[in-house]
């Protein structure tokens, strides 16, 4: 080493160390704070001092993320990526989630690399780390932002103790096609609800102090419009107008970014001809320039390499150039930056500035996480032990699961089950342990959770439960039907647990038909014929098409995949210990052929209404109604609620003012209960066509039997705004309708005019 280089290095190390000793600015909560924080001169100074000492290879290493060799057989310390860490070629690891193992890897980075830049550890902590909460679609059905934030922060605390600082969540993809298996990971079909939930989850994961050892940095995914693949087939083409993209699909990602999310993941799909991972429009124009996002962008798994089969890059090298030029900072698993960025720089196809900026963004997050100050603080067996399955987390899991369940139907007050009733418990999911956790259950161990059968025995007493499986989830084996029918005959009421296996939703799990497999439907028919009251509990990762089954049931409860405490929570709901309050975050069609079906549709020039003379030339199907089986926002309670007509603070709203909309809700039934009051609007005449209803507010309210409460919603100009004909965002004067009610198809209305 030359003397000059030695001197430079010494100066560099001194600058670096002194920079690291300065106190970190820790708080990042609101959007204003977030942007202020990113421009924080202390962090910028630290980042620049580190950057100034790095070689090109080391810089590229920070832009590289590899999966650890961790699998079911345990971690391996002989993998290639270990050598990459040692050589500074890999600065980030995912899929490693043990305090000891992660510490070992961190030690390599801290002790054996020249720059001693701490590794960043990522993992898919989607709905819990070990204590597993309901799948995100289930959590969304609670419409309970506080609880959703709490489960995200509990998940973060468990993950952070296990050595993770970065979760690949929340998934903010709006989805209106339940064939797509990943609807289970999102918040459903609606941009307003989706945005609120996205922000709640970011706040939950990140807390107010990213450097705390109980928080992790969030990753908003999959940017963008991954939830709109043609025909609901995962990874398929996405093609839509920019208006639809901005009106419907972008808001939840934006809400997550505004909530301070530190990272964003590109999506696998192409959007209007350009794969997201090569999209300058998405990653730079929208994300950074329009939204002011200052964190880093990571690809989805090998998404750069996939630009080749997409047919917009000739080879991986070409693909790496496209991604870097688009504004993608980190390559997940594909190794393309590692292999080609140096050459591409030499050839002038990427710039030093692009690389440096990408590294800056990554380092900034590492500083914010406090990794430079203490690279080891996230690896704590003690904390992991204390938090995992803790009393608080288990209670939270049970409460969230109760809140997530949606009572779809309840004729003749079949539910709650009555004391002393003899209950037949039937169905392929009634004694399944594994399925309760759903897909993406991180480090969750299904062996510790109770099955529905076990929880029912505990809740109702062994002598009251008679179990028969009846059939498998799929197939043609009817040999269990007879004993199931016999068990039903010997009981007062039948509870059937039907639906999907956990593996039928999540990634790469699209279904062309979203009905119950025929064997389950046939079993239901056989039980229905006994004449006993039938309660169907559904476990599924998506809305199902149940037009055949609904008439064969007396009650139906959607339980999703409810997580570690899901089975006891279900027993709580069936027994009436908890009065269900969930509302659907996604429409349930009658049949698959109605898809895409969503409440916020356009009216068309030939709307179909059932009233009046039957008309042929209307927007309708010949043999199927337009309406869904269960609408967005639908969900019953054991009690009933009545709504007054909405009262408005004015019927002539001045541009710039806020409208106050109030309605009185009364609990008219026989139980105390929680209702989710929903507020929708319709802009009657616009410069472009507007949806027949748009959710603009909701409130969970607890009402004692006979009690009334008045809820007031504020409708602001922002709520009345949309992308107008010229693609500017704003309001247009004219007539509006306002609706308040307990479901998108069960509302009372009022009208007002927006005047200049
Ligand atoms: C998924 C992402 C996930 C990533 C890392 C990909 O296949 O699409 O959602 O975060 O894998 O596990």
UniProtKB/TrEMBL annotation:
GO MF terms, alphabetically ordered: beta-glucosidase activity
SMART domains per the UniProt record, alphabetical: Fn3_like
Any one Pfam family match given in the protein's UniProt record, by short name: Glyco_hydro_3
Entry GO CC: periplasmic space
EC category name: hydrolase
EC numbers, comma separated: 3.2.1.21
Keywords, comma-separated and alphabetical: Glycosidase, Hydrolase, Periplasm, Signal
Domain (Fibronectin type III-like) ranges: 675-744
GO biological process: glucan catabolic process
SUPFAM superfamilies (UniProt xref): (Trans)glycosidases, Beta-D-glucan exohydrolase, C-terminal domain
Gene3D superfamilies the record matches: Glycoside hydrolase family 3 C-terminal domain, Glycoside hydrolase, family 3, N-terminal domain, Immunoglobulins
PANTHER family: LYSOSOMAL BETA GLUCOSIDASE, PERIPLASMIC BETA-GLUCOSIDASE-RELATED
Family of the protein in this entry: Belongs to the glycosyl hydrolase 3 family.
Name of this protein: Periplasmic beta-glucosidase
Organism field: Prolixibacter bellariivorans
């Amino acid at each position: 080493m030359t003397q000059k280089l030695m001197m430079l290095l010494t100066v560099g190390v001194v600058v670096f160390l002194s920079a690291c000793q300065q106190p970190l600015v820790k708080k990042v909560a609101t959007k204003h704070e977030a942007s202020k924080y990113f421009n924080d001169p202390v962090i910028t100074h630290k980042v620049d001092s580190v950057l100034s000492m790095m070689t090109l290879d080391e810089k590229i290493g920070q832009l590289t993320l590899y999966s650890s060799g961790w699998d079911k057989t345990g971690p391996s310390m002989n993998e290639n990526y270990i050598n990459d860490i040692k050589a500074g070629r890999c600065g980030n690891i995912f899929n490693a989630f043990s305090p000891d193992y992660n510490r070992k890897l961190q030690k390599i980075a801290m002790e054996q690399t020249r720059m001693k830049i701490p590794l960043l550890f990522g993992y898919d902590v989607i709905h819990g780390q070990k204590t597993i909460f309901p799948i995100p679609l289930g959590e969304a059905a609670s419409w309970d932002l506080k609880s959703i934030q709490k489960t995200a922060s509990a998940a973060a605390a468990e993950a952070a103790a296990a050595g993770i600082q970065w979760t690949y969540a929340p998934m903010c993809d709006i989805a209106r096609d339940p064939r797509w298996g990943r609807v289970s990971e999102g918040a459903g079909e609606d941009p307003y609800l989706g945005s609120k939930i996205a922000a709640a989850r970011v706040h939950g994961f990140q807390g107010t102090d990213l450097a705390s050892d109980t928080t992790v940095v969030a990753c908003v995914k999959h940017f963008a419009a991954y939830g709109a693949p043609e025909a609901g087939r995962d990874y398929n083409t996405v093609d839509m107008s920019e208006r639809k993209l901005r009106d419907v699909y972008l808001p939840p990602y934006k809400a997550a970014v505004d909530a301070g999310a530190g990272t964003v993941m590109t999506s696998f799909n192409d959007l209007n001809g350009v794969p997201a991972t090569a999209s300058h429009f998405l990653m730079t124009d929208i994300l950074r320039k329009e939204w002011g996002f200052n964190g880093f962008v990571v690809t989805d798994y090998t998404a750069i390499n996939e630009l080749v089969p997409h047919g917009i890059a000739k080879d991986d090298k070409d693909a790496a150039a496209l991604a870097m030029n688009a504004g993608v900072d980190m390559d997940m698993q594909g190794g393309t930056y590692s292999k080609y960025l140096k050459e591409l720089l030499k050839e002038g196809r990427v710039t030093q500035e692009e690389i440096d900026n990408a590294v800056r963004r990554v380092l900034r997050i590492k500083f914010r996480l406090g990794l430079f100050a203490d690279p080891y603080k996230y690896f704590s067996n003690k904390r992991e032990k204390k938090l995992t399955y803790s009393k608080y987390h288990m209670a939270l899991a049970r409460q969230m699961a109760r809140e997530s369940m949606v009572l779809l139907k309840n004729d003749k007050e079949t539910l709650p089950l009555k004391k002393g009733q003899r209950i037949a418990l039937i169905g392929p999911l009634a004694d399944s342990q594994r399925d309760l956790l759903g897909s993406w259950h991180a480090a969750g161990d299904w062996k510790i959770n109770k099955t529905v059968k076990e929880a029912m025995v505990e809740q109702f007493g062994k002598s009251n439960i008679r179990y028969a499986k009846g059939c498998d989830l799929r197939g043609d084996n009817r040999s269990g039907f007879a004993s199931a029918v016999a068990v039903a005959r010997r009981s007062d009421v039948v509870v059937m647990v039907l639906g999907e296996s956990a593996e039928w939703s999540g990634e790469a799990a699209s279904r062309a038909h979203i009905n119950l497999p025929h064997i389950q439907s046939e079993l239901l028919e056989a039980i229905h014929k006994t004449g006993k009251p039938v309660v169907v509990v559904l476990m599924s990762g998506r809305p199902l098409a149940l037009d055949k089954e609904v008439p064969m049931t007396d009650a139906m409860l959607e339980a999703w995949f409810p997580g570690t405490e899901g089975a006891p929570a279900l027993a709580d709901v069936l027994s009436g210990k908890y009065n269900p309050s969930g509302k659907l975050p996604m429409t349930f069609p009658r049949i698959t052929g109605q898809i895409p079906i969503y409440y916020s549709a356009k009216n068309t020039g030939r709307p179909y209404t059932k009233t009046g003379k039957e008309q042929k030339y209307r927007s309708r199907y010949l043999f199927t109604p337009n309406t869904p089986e269960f609408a967005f926002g639908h969900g019953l309670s054991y009690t009933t609620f009545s709504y007054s007509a909405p009262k408005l603070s004015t019927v002539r709203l001045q541009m710039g003012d806020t409208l106050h909309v109030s309605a009185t809700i009364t609990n008219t039934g026989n139980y105390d209960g929680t209702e989710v009051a929903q507020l929708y609007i319709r802009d009657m005449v616009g410069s472009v066509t507007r949806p027949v209803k748009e959710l603009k507010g909701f409130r969970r309210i607890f009402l004692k039997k006979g009690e009334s409460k008045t809820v007031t919603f504020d409708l602001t100009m922002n709520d009345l705004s949309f992308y107008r004909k010229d693609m500017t965002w704003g309001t247009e004067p004219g007539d509006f309708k306002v609706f308040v009610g307990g479901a998108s198809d069960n509302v009372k209305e009022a009208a007002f005019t927006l005047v200049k």
